[in-house]
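In this supplementary section we document a worked example of the pipeline. Step one takes a protein sequence of length 99 as its only input; no multiple sequence alignment statistics are reported here. Step two produces a three-dimensional model, which step three serialises into structure tokens for compact storage. The input and output of this example are shown verbatim.
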Amino acid sequence: MRAVKVLSVCGSGTVSSAMLSSKLEDVLSERGYDLEATEVAPGGVSMAIQNSDYDLIAYTSPVEDIYGIPVLNATGFLVGINEEEFVDELMEVVGKLDL
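The serialised model returned by step three reads:
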């Protein structure tokens, strides 16, 4: 089984996106999945999408939904608000992947 490939997006592409990737890794690991994450700022999304195939985008800074893959707002998840709802949405997306 291959890892779930996530593009993690925050304002600067460093701190919040790295924290988001870590939380995503914990959630996915608990459910038997590996994570391969890349952290970028919103301006780096197009280039990242061109250079690799991602399964989804998780963001804390707005991203346009024009890339043909699921785009999940992870702001609440990162700060501990409505985490279960986000995890349900995440796992619904992951469940549809061909891993």
